[in-house]
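Provenance

Sequences were taken from public entries as deposited. Structures were produced by running a predictor on each sequence independently, with no templates supplied. The record for SDR family oxidoreductase from Halomonas tibetensis is shown for reference.
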Amino acid sequence: MSEINGKVVIITGASSGLGEATAHRLAKGGAKLVLGARREERLEALRDAIVEQGGEAIYRVTDVTDREQVEALATAAKEAYGRIDVLVNNAGVMPLSPLDQLKVDEWEQMIDVNIKGVLYGVAAVLPTMREQHAGHIINLSSVAGHVVFPSAAVYCATKYAVKAISEGIRQEGGEEIRSTNISPGAVATELTTTISDSDTAKNVNELYEMAIDADAIARAITYAIEQPADVDVNELIIRPTKQPL
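Predicted structure for SDR family oxidoreductase:
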C-alpha cells in the first residue's frame, strides 16, 4: 500500500456503493480523501467513520451535473491538501428502459451524470495534474460499455462514452497522467433503484441476485492506484463469475 499512502484522492458518488467502499479501503491504505456526493448526511457519516478509524477525509456536497460544484470539490482538495493525485469518477445512474418507452428525461439524466459529470471531473483536476506533472484519473464505466443490452441502449451509450474518454486521457496523458477504465458487472449497490420501468426492473433484479460486493471494485481501484508511477493499468472488467454477459 506504499503507493497509496499520502495520496490525495477525490471520489465522486462517495455516499454509497462503490464510492463508499472505495473510500473505506483507500483510507486504510493512508490516502487523504476528498469525498463528493449529493447526500450530506451520508457524506458526514462516512467522513466521521473514516476519521474514527484513524484515516483522513473531508467532504463537500457535490452534484456532478453542476460544473461549478465539481470545480469546488477540486478546489477543496487543493486547499486542504495542496495537490490532487487521483480522481475516481464514480458517480452514475442507471434508469434502464426500452427506447419505445420514450423516457427522454431519464436519457438526459444519464447523459448529464454519466458523461458530462465525468467530463466535469476531468476538467476540474486536469490543470492541477498538469502543473504537478503527475496524476491519475479513474473512470467507472461498465460491462455495458462493452456489450449492448436490451432496455439499456442509452445507458450503454453513456458507458461506451466513458470508455472512449478514458482512452483519450490515456493517449493525451503522456508520461504524466495515468488513465484507468473500470467496468463492473453486477455489483450490489443502489444503482438498480433508479429503474422506473417495472418490467426492466424485474429482469435486472433477477440478474443482480448474483451480484458481487462493492468491495470487489474497491479492490480493483486500489490495485490500479498502488502501481508504481511507470505502470498504468488501463482497463479492468470485473464481473460475478456466474454473469454470462
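The longest helix spans residues 104-132.
Helices lie at 17-28, 40-52, 67-81, 104-132, 153-173, 198-207, 215-225.
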